[in-house]
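Fold Annotation — chain and its backbone

Fields — amino acid sequence, structure tokens

___
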Amino acid sequence: MTGSLLSRLILRRSSQQPNRFIFQRGISQSAAERTKDTLPAEPPVLPAFDHAPSPYSGPSGNDIIAKRREYLSPSIFHAYKSPLNVVEGKRQYLFDENGRRYLDAFGGIATVCCGHCHPDVVAAIVEQTKKLQHSTVLYLNHAVTDFAEALASKLPGNLKVAFFTNSGTEANELAMLIARLYTGCNDIISIRNSYHGNASGTMGATAQSIWKFNVVQTGVHHAVNPDPYRGIFGSDGEKYARDVQDIINFGTFGNVAAFMSESIQGVGGIVELAPGYLSAAYESVKKAGGLCIADEVQAGFARTGSHFWGFEAHGVQPDIVTMAKGIGNGIPLGAVVTTPEIAKALTHRNYFNTFGGNPVCTAAGLAVLKVIEKEKLQENAFVVGSHLKERLNALKDKYEIIGDVRGKGFMLGVELVTDRELKTPAKEETLHVMEQLKDLGVLVGKGGYYGNVFRITPPLCFSKEDADFLVDAMDYTLSRI
């Protein structure tokens, strides 16, 4: 599969209106009347930004596509019919080969935390690279211990012992291993619609068929997803949590190794967990002797705004926390943080990671923590993210195709449906809107099992003007299809 996944999907057209999708604007007559005179007449304009990209003289996008087809795995796909050749980034913006600027509302899949090429993070990387690019954790170097200490200060309770990895998948794999070693049990419970990685163990914990291959995946049970929008119990978290207890009672020998959950499902379509769910699920798992693993790969590092970690909003105390993505602002870095007692489980045999704790990566991680605090990015994620969600909800009142707006801070989702009552996924329309937004200068992600959810996870330096431009661009696009 060497071509674009998106370009091979055929857009459904109306025979009477060949250039327009079939759905109605406005959820009622009164809503239609309210919005009749507020349809945007002109496309919005990107906010001013004081940066000119360097002239680009590298290979063209077409040349890169040709080489990708010849030299890279055919499993790699690209977004958009005409793939974007990104050559430079600055703060919340990206620039293509022609110097055109785009508002990055995806943040490298919730990875760019401080902003593209943040000078403080770049300086830390360059300075450390000049001194020592790599040795091994078999020798001493203060970069890794300095970062571990700073990271521990951001976590509650006795979560203070870190083991560094290269990615979120590696972090989750290690967390599952630690839980099994510590408890002496094998069974792990995760939630349907979750995504925890694509290695052997984490693929088992991931609960979407589109991310799973037909290989042996054992020892994982998937609980009913506590999805307030599509779930069978609405927002009643305790009812969903009964399934966790049922799995323990009927699917295991009565004890489990761990329960693993995201605080907001990222790849699954920015799905918030029903209130009360995590605390009830944690209680059942702890009674069964299991550990609770908080997957903070996407929701961590102040992205939700209200808290530094997503699990904090649920009032729970995990035994293990995994993290990656925002931890290094784009540097390959992940971590597992747990208590000293649980961490001893890895000492019964040798466990090693050649690049985990690399001095350059951990220097970048420490710089990220300092930038988040210095620039008050958590506060910005809360204030601007709340404004953005409010404006997106106003669009939901205006356009019937928007079935749900959800998430917190700068981890927001907009789900498109062709029928609000049936919640029929608007997959083709989502692709169309995504293309149009790119043409207007806005980059968003796409997720959810049905591929009908816009994932909005921008750098935490996103401004109110950026948020308004994003919503105005979406408004303009939806008004014309």
Remarks:
- The first helix runs from residue 29 to 35.
- The CA atoms of residues 152 and 160 lie 5 Å apart.
